[in-house]
Each structure stands twice: as structure tokens, then as C-alpha cells.
Design goal:
The complex is a heterodimer. Chain A is α/β, with parallel strands linked by helices. Helices cover 44% and strands 21% of the residues of chain A. In chain A, strand 1, helix 1 and strand 2 form a beta-alpha-beta unit. Chain B folds into 2 domains: 100 residues, no CATH class; 177 residues, Transferase(Phosphotransferase) domain 1 (Transferase(Phosphotransferase), domain 1), CATH 1.10.510.10. The chains are: A alpha/beta, B alpha+beta.
Chain lengths: 158, 322
């Protein structure tokens, strides 16, 4: 007797962390190219605003205005990327966007926390070409993602 | 509490020599540091302070530049020397090589850290009072002592004497210096401007105190890496009994300079040697390995003070075994 599983297979969920850089654009285009048009995939495009600490602002109002402006810009960027994914063949309901403020967390922590919340199987980032000095003084998100990520794949797009 | 001019002159007479007592003592408003001059009195939190000279960097900022917003002053109630630091906000871009990053001088940050480190022997102490415009003005205890950069090069008759007879104690002091920064980092704060002239050895306690916490920088992925870079520079400085520069080697030991590769210099300041074992072969391997984390050839970097302290502990043990 044949048994039929009525439950739908779960989508493979990609989390693409982006900013305004060219390397982020390459990451989005790569995923669009590789899995766009295939069934069984969903994507969340994530932008983390690197909010400076309160010391960088003269007042709380200035900080709020700064954050608001950056979030609006991030949402516009995310919407553009969302359209790229849809044009690549993703159903609109399977391309979500999310923006948040980094606060006390590092980028990699914020990305991995989001991955955990959304149960994504793959994290995708573009590779920023940093000098050794820059990486030494300020760290590298992709390096740390590769080191810290658990229960998921990490794609670093060249 | 109100003080008459006669009261104030009487107090001033108690703490300074007769020839230093001014004929007139003016109480100045605290809202504008440019209007507060030598021999004026400012009243903060009910305490009168007799203003002396502006501070200069070397202790507090840019080399030999007067800081009009930082003034020494005598607490007229106790006679203690204080450093008054007015609000001076500035945002600027710091530049290291080709790297440019945002920095800020924030009185709020320093006020916050002063609260955090209250009572600790490894940090400058002080309180914060509002000036007449409502801004946080910091009243800092004056630290009698010399900076680490002044002390270290004078220890021992030469590097070998220094290394065998003084360095173990200097390294112990350095571990304490790093532990103090670990406390800040664990509390979510950066120092922001870690330099060897921001460490003063307090003559009353014999311990180093960190000073000047008002800088902050925009960090990237690694929140504390820039602070760790500063700690690394200090470690290389004390191990070398001063900066060992390629220029110095060129004139004093060209043979050693020939043996250095591009990996052996400081990752940021390429004229400073980080691989000091090539210059002083008696430097133990584990200690030199710590130094190499700050070299141009480093493959891994410290991201936390914990990582640095762990390696320093092993280096210290190796030093003891010799």
C-alpha cells in the first residue's frame, strides 16, 4: 500500500546579508543566478545598520534621526535587491526583507542570530577585500562567520 | 555655598606660597573654558577650585599642545591638586596609513567610565559635575608620577641587563595593565586611546593607572581590536626597552637589519620591529610569539584581552623557567 506524505517539503532558506557595497551586490546576483527559478527555495535579504555608540551623537534625538534615515535607506536598498530576486524567478512571497540596528552586537553575531531565528540553512555574504591592516584593526565579518557559524553553510562570494 | 573674595584669598593663602597669592581673586562662570584663566576661581559642586595652568599633551593629548579645556586647579577646601576637564566635543577622522575611521571625543564616555572604575587603583579617579551650562565637567585627581614611556627606557644599563633584571617585573605590571582593560571590555567599554603615555605610575601606590578615556572610535566587526592594537604596541615597546626602529638598526646594527624580512615589522607602523627575537636572541620563544601577533606577518590576531592574557601567562611561565 502506498502512503502519501501530505506535508509540503520545507523550503531551503537562504539568508543574504547585504550592505551598499559591490560585494553585496555580487552575493545577491550569485544566489539569484544559482537558485533563481528553482522550486523549494526562499530568501531573506538582511541589512544590519552599524549604529555608532551614543557617544557619537550630541543628543538622543540626533541618534534617533540618524537611525531612521539609515533604516529608510536600507529598506530602499533591500527592496531593490528583492526585485532582482523576483526577476530571477523567486516567487514574491518567498523573498523577504529584514533590516535591523546592530546595537551592541557585531555584524556576524547579528547575522547568526537572525539565521537562528529564521532557521536558514545557508548564510551568504559578499567578501569585502580588506587590507591586512584593516582586518587586524577592525576584524572581518566573513572570517568570523566562517569560524562561528554552526548548523549552516556559509557562502562567501568573491 | 557662597564665598566672599576675602574667604577665597584666605583659602588660597593656605595652599600656595605668599608670592603666588593674587591681589584679586575672581570667581568665573564655568560655562566657557576660554574665559577661565590662571589665578581665577571656579566653583563646582560647592567646592572652590583655584585655577592654575592649562594642561599640555604628553600627559593629556597632542604633543606639546596646550589644552585650554583641561586645567590644573587646587581644591581650596583640601589643598589637593586636581585636573578640571571641560566639555570639548570633537568628531574627526583618524588616519592610520591608508585607513580612515571615525573618532569622537566624548565627555559622556569619560564620565561613564569614571563611575565604572571608581575606587580602582589601575584607573585615573575623578568625579563629574555639571558646569553652569549643564555640561559634564570632570574633576580628576592629579596623578603624581611618570608615564610608562618615560620609565621603561631608563631601566637597566643596556637591553640585556634590562631584560634579565627588570623585565620580569615590567611584564607583571603589563599583565595588570591588560587586566584593567579586560575589566573595561567586560563592562562593554573601550578605552579608545591606548598609548604608553596614557599610563602613569602613581607614586603613592607604585601602580600604573590608565588615564584619558574620552576617545571613542567606530569599530567594525571586532569591537575591541583597536584597543588590542594599542596594548600590543605597548608590549613591543616594553620588551624592546623602547621602540626598536629600522632606522635605529640601520645606524647601529645594519647586520641585524639585513636579517629582517617584511614580516618582522609592526603590522601598522612598518618602521618599528615586532620580531624582537631577531634583534635580542635571548628573548624567549613564547614571548616573541605574542609579539608576532602584532607583526606584518601575523596570520591570526587577538580579538580579546582574554586571548592575550592567556598567551602572556604562558610566556611568563617560560620566562620564570629560565
Amino acid at each position: 500500500m502506498e502512503t502519501k506524505n501530505s506535508s509540503q517539503p520545507k523550503d531551503k532558506h537562504f539568508l543574504i546579508a547585504v550592505d551598499e557595497s559591490e560585494s553585496s551586490k555580487r552575493a545577491v546576483l550569485y544566489v539569484a543566478d544559482i537558485v533563481g527559478g528553482f522550486p523549494g527555495f526562499a530568501v531573506t535579504l538582511l541589512s544590519i545598520i552599524p549604529e555608532p555608540e551614543e557617544d557619537f551623537f550630541d543628543s538622543g534625538e540626533e541618534q534617533i534621526a540618524w537611525t531612521k534615515e539609515k533604516l529608510e535607506a536600507a529598506n530602499r536598498m533591500l527592496e531593490n535587491y528583492r526585485q532582482i530576486m523576483i526577476h530571477a524567478g523567486f516567487p514574491p512571497e518567498k523573498v523577504r526583507i529584514r533590516s535591523c540596528v546592530g546595537e551592541e552586537k557585531s555584524f556576524s553575531e547579528a547575522i547568526l542570530d537572525t539565521r537562528c531565528d529564521l532557521s536558514c540553512c545557508t548564510v551568504v555574504v559578499g567578501r569585502h577585500h580588506k587590507s591586512r591592516t584593516e582586518e587586524f584593526l577592525f576584524g572581518s565579518t566573513s572570517t568570523r562567520l566562517i569560524r562561528e557559524a554552526k548548523n549552516c553553510a556559509v557562502w562567501v562570494i568573491e | 555655598m557662597d564665598f566672599t573674595e576675602k574667604d577665597l584669598r584666605g583659602m588660597v593663602r593656605k595652599w600656595v606660597s605668599p608670592d603666588r597669592v593674587p591681589k584679586r581673586v575672581q570667581v568665573k562662570d564655568t560655562s566657557d573654558f576660554f574665559r577661565v584663566d590662571y589665578d581665577d576661581v571656579v566653583i563646582l559642586g560647592g567646592v572652590p577650585y583655584f585655577v592654575r595652568n592649562n594642561e599640555r599633551e604628553g600627559r593629556f593629548g597632542l604633543e606639546d599642545e596646550q589644552k585650554f579645556w583641561v586645567k590644573r586647579a587646587i581644591d581650596l577646601l583640601t589643598g589637593e591638586m586636581k585636573v578640571l576637564k571641560w566639555v570639548f566635543r570633537e568628531r574627526f577622522e583618524a588616519r592610520i596609513g591608508n585607513l580612515v575611521f571615525d573618532c569622537v571625543r566624548s565627555p559622556q564616555k569619560e564620565a561613564r567610565i569614571l563611575e565604572l572604575v571608581r575606587g580602582r587603583a589601575d584607573f585615573m579617579q575623578g568625579t563629574t559635575e555639571q558646569d553652569s551650562a549643564g555640561h559634564p565637567l570632570r574633576i580628576l585627581d592629579y596623578i603624581h608620577g611618570r608615564t610608562l614611556s618615560q620609565i621603561t627606557p631608563l631601566l637597566g644599563s643596556d637591553h640585556e641587563d634590562f631584560f634579565y633584571n627588570h623585565f620580569p617585573l615590567v611584564l607583571d605590571e603589563y599583565v595588570g595593565i591588560v587586566e584593567a582593560i579586560r575589566f573595561l571590555h567586560q563592562s562593554g567599554e573601550k578605552h579608545g586611546d591606548i598609548r604608553r603615555d596614557h599610563l602613569i605610575k602613581d607614586e603613592t601606590t607604585g601602580r600604573y593607572r590608565w588615564i584619558d578615556y574620552d576617545f571613542n572610535y567606530r569599530h567594525g566587526e571586532s569591537r575591541f581590536a583597536y584597543d588590542l592594537f594599542g596594548l600590543g604596541n605597548i608590549l613591543v615597546f616594553i620588551t624592546g626597552r623602547g621602540d626598536v626602529t629600522t632606522n635605529r638598526l640601520l645606524t647601529q646594527a645594519p647586520g641585524i637589519l639585513d636579517r629582517l624580512s617584511s614580516d618582522d615589522v609592526n603590522i601598522v607602523f612598518h618602521n618599528r620591529v615586532a620580531n624582537l627575537k631577531k634583534v635580542y636572541p635571548y628573548i624567549p620563544t613564547l614571548l616573541n610569539r605574542v609579539l608576532m601577533h602584532f607583526s606584518a606577518g601575523a596570520q591570526v590576531y587577538y580579538e580579546t584581552t582574554e586571548e592575550l592574557l592567556e598567551d602572556l601567562g604562558e610566556a611568563r611561565e617560560e620566562l620564570e623557567r629560565r
